[in-house]
Amino acid sequence: MMQILRKASDIQQFTKESRAIGNSLSLVPTMGALHEGHLSLVKMALKHSDVCLATIFINPKQFNRIDDLKAYPRNEERDIHLLQEIGCSAVFIPEYEDIYSDDSQQVNINLIGLDQTMEGASRPGHFQGVLEIIHRFFVFVKPNIAVFGEKDFQQLRIIEQYSKSLIPKVNILRAPIFREKNGLAMSSRNERLSSLERSEAGFVYAQLKRAVSLIHEIGFEETLVKIKGSFKKHPHIELEYLILADEHSLQEHSRISSDKSMRLFIACFIRDIRLIDNVALSR
Ligand code: AMP
Known about the structure:
About 40% of the residues lie in helices and about 20% in strands. By secondary structure, it is α/β, with parallel strands linked by helices.
């Protein structure tokens, strides 16, 4: 039976008991409204550890738009059911006060510029908010393993860098992007799309894949012109950025280079709903 924990003290009890019997512990932080992508993280965590603790917490500090926070989908009962079904050991569902009663725990580390581009540039304060919550979870739980999705690749790189500098004992695992049949990267925010918009949103991944093949033929700058042109013609989907970046440093590049692993990153809007995705380029 999955344990449902709501207080920081419940977490302490749970982790103490797990450690006492020699169990290794994995952590999967989420903001709820769970989908197959989230569940794949929990399954990966369970493969690599004895006990998996998932968290469900919509962290206000990482939202830079109040309307986005208010509209964020919530479905606690269903989430609990889904986690239970796949054998997750426990779920932590705290209130804001349980997490942020002590506001002195600022995370002050050098992110070597990882937070300056893409989502960092578009969403001021977002990654600082992410690190504040992840730091608290890492300190509360002291997991052996934590799993994050490549869907939020920049977040993943930032957490890897944070963990390396501050909490190197935690082994960070990367989970591949889970997609709908039409290629749309699964996301809790997709719940806000109408069924027509959801099927139209397959366009985003289709354009990413098109960019991957074009880039090898005509280079990134020409590719960008073509992809921008296609988005301009789309009646409902607006491109915010398409960026070519080094997978490790996340620094932007204007051409592919054979000695670096690179990725294409995209952000776009359908109405006020922001979608992000990324794809690796083969060398
Ligand atoms: P969120 O609930 O959006 O904060 O996401 C929680 C975790 O699930 C993060 O590590 C995300 O990167 C990951 N995640 C979200 N969507 C997907 C997906 N489609 N495939 C893989 N991982 C995902």
